[in-house]
Amino acid sequence: MKQNKNNHAWQAFQKAGLLAVMFTCFTLTASAQSSGGVKVKGVVTDAKQAALPSLAVKIKGTGTGVITDKEGEFVFDEPLQPGTVLVFSYLGMSTQEVTISEGMPARLSITMQEAPIEIVGATADIGPYESPSAWARFWNRMKD
Prior knowledge:
This protein is an alpha+beta fold. The chain folds into 2 domains: about 1-35; about 40-110, Carboxypeptidase-like, regulatory domain (Immunoglobulin-like), CATH 2.60.40. It has helices at about 1-35, 130-144, and strands at about 40-45, 55-60, 65, 75, 85-90, 95-100, 110. A 4-stranded antiparallel beta sheet has the order 3-2-5-6, with no helix packed on it. A hairpin with a 5-residue loop joins strand 2 and strand 3 (about 65). The longest helix is centred in the N-terminal third of the chain and has 33 residues, at about 1-35. The N and C termini lie far apart (about 110 Å).
């Protein structure tokens, strides 16, 4: 009889422990969800309102980010904390930064501006040298 009481007490203890663990997990999940954060999604276009697919939207200072789809739309799966800075970058466009705040619209609309392209240096290949004197000078220098 004593063994049955011990067995019953052990089962009750296990159930209480399981309930405590479940309650703790639920509380942590609820507090993480209620700790704020802004669900961020939007669309990115150029000055002519054309969608910009494959544009990088990164969280500044981290390696985290998303890429826009073929309609120029993006969404972050997890809510972002206010103060988080998003960096929008695309080849041929000026990089833009947007800071997340509590009162932001549900859907962002970002318009990228063209960046002036500066050519730093250029080379041209015009084919082999045709001047025999140039070749002669070259070979003479190589022999010395």
